[in-house]
Design goal:
InterPro entries: 3-OHacyl-CoA_DH, 3-OHacyl-CoA_DH_NAD-bd, 3HC_DH_C, 6-PGluconate_DH-like_C_sf, 6PGD_dom2, Mito_3-hydroxyacyl-CoA_DH, NAD(P)-bd_dom_sf. It is an enzyme of class 1 (oxidoreductase). One of its GO terms (molecular function) is (3S)-3-hydroxyacyl-CoA dehydrogenase (NAD+) activity. The protein has 298 residues and is of the alpha/beta class. The chain has eleven helices and eight strands. Helix 1 crosses helix 3, helix 7 crosses helix 9 and helix 10 packs antiparallel against helix 11. The protein starts with a strand and ends in a 28-residue tail after the last helix. The structure holds nicotinamide-adenine-dinucleotide. The site of nicotinamide-adenine-dinucleotide has 24 residues, from helix 5 and strand 6.
Amino acid sequence: MNYKNITVAGSGVLGYQIAFQAAFHNFNVTVYDINDEMLAKAKAKFPKMCAAFKRDLNASDADLAVAFDNLKYSSNLAEAVKDADLLIEAVPENPAIKIDFYTKLAKVAVEKTVFATNSSTLLPSQFAEVTGRPSQFLALHFANDIWRNNTAEIMGHSGTNPAIFNDVVAFAKAIGMLALPLQKEQPGYILNSLLVPFLGAATDLLVKEVAEPQTIDKTWMKATGAPIGPFAILDIVGINTVYNINKMASEKSKNPLKIKTTEFLKENFIDTNKLGVSTGEGFYTYPNPAYKEDDFLS
Ligand code: NAD
């Protein structure tokens, strides 16, 4: 892998984090967004990132100054990608917006540039043709709070060149990620293929009144040695996100248990603004949730 110049397209929740992470690891990074106002908004978030890098990674002022030196900004797509080895796309999770973006990008990007999508729920095969370079296109999926939750799932489509796949795995490692290569396309990648059914099984047990949330968490923690259980995870993910996933699934499947779960979450959590860690209360209360107490498992 001899990437040096990285362009990050979309400077929202994930994009500015990816840009800062790559700049911190000494890549030349150009941040691209639809206009200068969006770029100014992203820039304003970097001081917060610095505080997080100091707190969580012991980053020094000198390290952070290097990261800032490595960052450039442009709202002109052709200019932003003119010498990019790798473009990481973090535009909104909307197929029409992504198709429009790749169509424009294909017209201006130089031949060497590899394109990677950070999409959480869409598959690279959906966009491979419109990129104009299917063999140089794949998914590189980061998690929110990238510097701390430093996973990178790398997933090609059937036409991705294996050498390019390996380069992107090496790049992910070079920016401090735990690289997690997938051997084929999978909706939800590895993490959500595991997590969504797991959390769904936990809420099924609750809504069927089989056991209380804390009993379910204790079972999982004691029996497997896991540090937290599914209801603690639900609080971290955010009950609004879980509610939205359940609502969509229940509307599609008409499964009575999922409908009941959706109603249960709405009445007990959404309508009362108990959304989990973000609002200070969900299945547990914060900052000192019961599952962290010494006697929780005794
Ligand atoms: P966001 O809405 O916070 O940011 C999107 C950014 O893209 C905005 O700054 C917007 O101005 C910009 N944008 C819109 N159209 C554009 C275009 N044509 N060209 C360039 N920029 C454009 O979204 P987000 O949460 O950062 O998500 C971006 C991608 O990252 C999505 O595919 C999402 O699935 C994925 N992702 C998000 C998270 C998360 O926790 N938010 C986690 C992992 C992956």
